[in-house]
Amino acid sequence: MPRVLVLALENWLGAARLPRALSVAGFQVSLLCYPNTLISLTKFADDRDICVPSDSAEIVAQRILSLVEKNQTRMIIAGDDRAVRFLQHIVEVAPTGLLPKELTDLARASLPDPSAFKYGDDKEAASRLMDELGVRTPRRQLIWSTGDLREFAAMGLPIVIKPLTGTAGQGVQILRTQDDVRAATIDPRSSWMAQQYIVGKSAGSASVALNGDCFATLAYEKTLTYPGETGPASVATRLDHDEFHIWAGAFAKATHFNGFFSPGYMVEDSTGEPYFLEVNSRVVPMATCAARLGLDLCKCLFAKIVGAPIPKLDPEAPKVIAFYPQELHRDPNSPNRHLLLDEPVDDPLIHKAMERGIEMLAAGLG
Question: What distance in Å separates the CA atoms of residue 117 and residue 36, rounded to the nearest whole number?
Fold first, then answer.
């Protein structure tokens, strides 16, 4: 039975179900994470260790090495952005010979080609790559000042401005009127992009690849988001649209991708056409519950590694999911409770912690 190591260096809700999804798919699971985090409460890890935020990079690397030396490990799966950056750093320092080859080789086999690391951190670089691959992208321009912003806005509203780095809608501002343009804020410490705003629904594709071969993708619309229009999905609807699969495959091939990733899109209301916006080079929440919508991405990864047939999408599966607990954070009295298909009742300590968070938010204490 192949083993994977989950590395989680943030207390991020999206990673909490990852050990369960991998274990149910057939993997043995090792876990390295911070104490007192949601993922640390999982029962679905048969080997684990902890590190703390004050640990040096050398200590964290040694803890990873201890886990993989104890049990032969096929790949490391980053549970969050900080974990992705840490694994990338291992690969980047590999030529110095300061880290064991066993560790640097495993990190390299768990990531895209080093030349592609930038695409998860730089929305402009990712958009340029997708342009080159023939993927539809909105009109855009780098901006450095409010003067640049006004110049771009003069070509037509609405537009959106965003920092080149950042996730979960951080810093994103939708500007629909000239008053919005005048009120917009640009942090001079960051690089920014102005982009044509595609009127429609935000969407994504939870995807997984090995050696540049994207063998499984589940595309979805972010039907409800929280907090606000630019926040993460709280309700999602499966999209059966060929372009999402083709484009994820093109990105994986161009970057020689290994592991989970998720391109983000806007689907235009008037045409139904998706436009590429950015890519997350890590697991997203949909990746751990895609089985509920008909395609278990972790089982697809397991099958690919052991050489078994890759599972196919079940078109008869439900098409809509309300993410637990995100939808109850949005509305504790949500009418979508019947769509909460991923409540972690079989991972009791995580479930209890999530319930506690919902109760605190409902009481106004969160």
Answer: 30
